[in-house]
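note to self: dont lose this again. the chain is below, predicted strucutre after it. 329 aa total, dont forget to put it in the shared folder this time
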Amino acid sequence: MKKVSVIIPVYNAERYVAATIESVLSQTYENFEIIIVDDGSPDNSIEVCQKFTDSRIRIIRQKNRGLPGARNTGIRHAKGDYLAFLDADDIWLPTKLEKHVYHLNSSPTVGISFCYSSFINQQGNPTGLYQKPRKLYDITPSYILCRNPVGNGSAAVIRREVFEKIKFQDNLYSIVEDYYFDERLRHAKADATDIECWLRISIQTHWRHEGLPEALTLYRLNSGGLSANALKQLEALETVIEKTRSYAPDIIAHCEKAAKAYHLRYTARRLVSLGDGRTAVKLFNQVLANHWRILLEEPGKTLLTGFAAYVVWFLYPLILTIRKSEASA
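---
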């Protein structure tokens, strides 16, 4: 019976982490360990974690190294045949591990098993929105860079052998260590190290990505994100493109403009939801400038994004004026 190592990086998550841990302890597949990585959290998150007495839980403490650093630490301490990451504010449905383990056990060429995700709000209630990649099979490096079908770090379960294939050594903290996620690509208020890792796996190994057509992960939307954070994510993507160009220039030459267009469109949609229509319109124009064929590939979503961006740009100042007048009345 394969053992799963569940790695939970923890930083400023005292409001959510108990529900996250409980969702793992409620799994129908019970052969797992939970590795909680305290990434120098300044709040009471770890005190919350320490209230759980299950013998399968271990807590590892370190100075803050960010999300990729916490994941790397978790991998180094993991004892499982399969590894899974769960962000400290996300939740798994009870059958998640059971279904991924069955998928990996029955598909010997699949290295990364991922699933759909359902979005929840800060209160844990469903928003009605889903993260559903268009492709679950035949995932290519170009598709990973353009669309990131895994979607988020809490959606995948991965064979240990996959990480053994892509590990490298570095000396970032006065000691030589094995690395899996590239901590040199860490950005403030943004992270694309998961996309870079999935992309490197696809390019440098024979292991396949394959998805399950079911929402087994509940991904929490954080309203604390600002427009600037959305733009930071685009900067993080640029670092992934430049690193990949250094060892796989043909792949980048083939899909760089398309990848930028898809990520620009995603960011424009996010900015629309934040009410920043002006920046959303600017990014939407860049979408078409980089890869106008996106209109043919996904006309509905692309046209809707552009329409929404312009509507918010024109109407949002009027809405603010009305609100101000109501407040002063």
